[in-house]
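Recall the central idea of this unit: under ordinary conditions, the amino acid sequence of a chain determines the structure it adopts. In this exercise we apply that idea directly, starting from the sequence alone.
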Amino acid sequence: METNKIDTIFNVKGKVALITGATGGFGRATAMGLALAGVKVMATGRTDEKLKPLVEEIKKAGGTAAFSAGSPIIQEDVKKIVDETIDKFGGIDLLITAAGVNKPNPIIEQPLEEWEMIMDANLKGTWLFCKEAGKVMIDQGRGGKVILLGSARGELGMANYSAYSPSKGAIHLLTKTLGCEWGKYNINVNAIAPTVFRTDLTQWMFDDQAFYKNFLNRIPIGRLGEPEDFLGTIIYLSSKASDFMTGAVLCVDGGYTAG
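Accordingly, the structure predicted from this sequence is:
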């Protein structure tokens, strides 16, 4: 390989990224990390109140960003967000879906409405953004990168996770399906499957010392994850370095699913 190719293979500068769930733990770290790497970021979530400070923080750090609020499970909102991304930045090169929720409950106690809410937030929203942003990438004719947020729980079962685990397992199969479907368009579709990372959603796991210490016994690296731990994987999957990878689920989990 030529030296200049080695120097640029991980370069993502100038790309346009649409990031869902941008104010959550994964989304925020991804938005900040990609922006500092030279990516133009369109951050999306449900409310302006949370998105505006994030965009201001990115700009203060020297990055380029804008925001567009809307519900990820309403198709008209998703279309609006995609259209505003094109109007602002001229296209979409990267789609990263970081929105998601979880509410553990035994299946016999979990209300149907709660199960539907988790499936909608984790799966339906991802599907809609893939559908609308995928149209744009196909029409652009220059390929693209799609990175979906899966979970170690999409690979392994867990008591009281009868909504969350199936939703993430479906994300993993959506990754493989779209990898097959969009390969001819030079659109790479891959997923990241983390174990427990420190976010607002999982902070209780860090605060519950008994749970925390027990969980660490399953992780060979010996600690739970921080959002920044998967930025290298995000850069890799966003860059030319991953051009020959599609339909893959990368477990960024400290070895959790290895044993």
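DSSP finds nine helices and seven strands in the chain.
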